[in-house]
Design a protein that fits this description.
The structure is a single chain. This protein is mainly alpha-helical. It folds into two domains: 51 residues, Winged helix-like DNA-binding domain superfamily/Winged helix DNA-binding domain (Arc Repressor Mutant, subunit A, Orthogonal Bundle); 37 residues. Helix content is 69%, strand content 0%. The longest helix has 33 residues.
């Protein structure tokens, strides 16, 4: 069985879909069908837009500052763990040779 390709939508498409859902007076399910997307997808977009406003849907190329900081700290944390492990191994090797 072949995996489904995940469709990618632009920020502009998502914003227009949310505005259409808010202003048209039609049910979200009808709007989603008209746009060719799942109604749960449109619901998720509306929810995200209500939380973040115009900053919603940053895309993978422009993450929010907090996510970028978290990613940087995780990378730094992993590097420090690797350095610590190397030092532990070196200490074990040197302490064995002194016995």
């Amino acid at each position: 069985m072949m995996p489904k390709d995940q469709r990618v939508f632009t920020k502009e498409f998502k914003l227009e879909a949310v505005q259409l859902a808010q202003k048209s007076g039609k049910p979200q399910a009808q709007i989603a069908r008209d746009l060719g997307i799942a109604d749960s997808t449109l619901h998720h977009w509306c929810k995200e837009f209500s939380k973040a406003g115009e900053r919603a849907f940053p895309g993978s190329g422009n993450p929010p500052a907090s996510e970028e900081e978290m990613r940087r700290l995780r990378r730094e944390n992993e590097l420090l763990r690797q350095e610590r492990d190397v030092l532990k191994k070196a200490l074990a090797i040197f302490s064995r040779s002194q016995l």
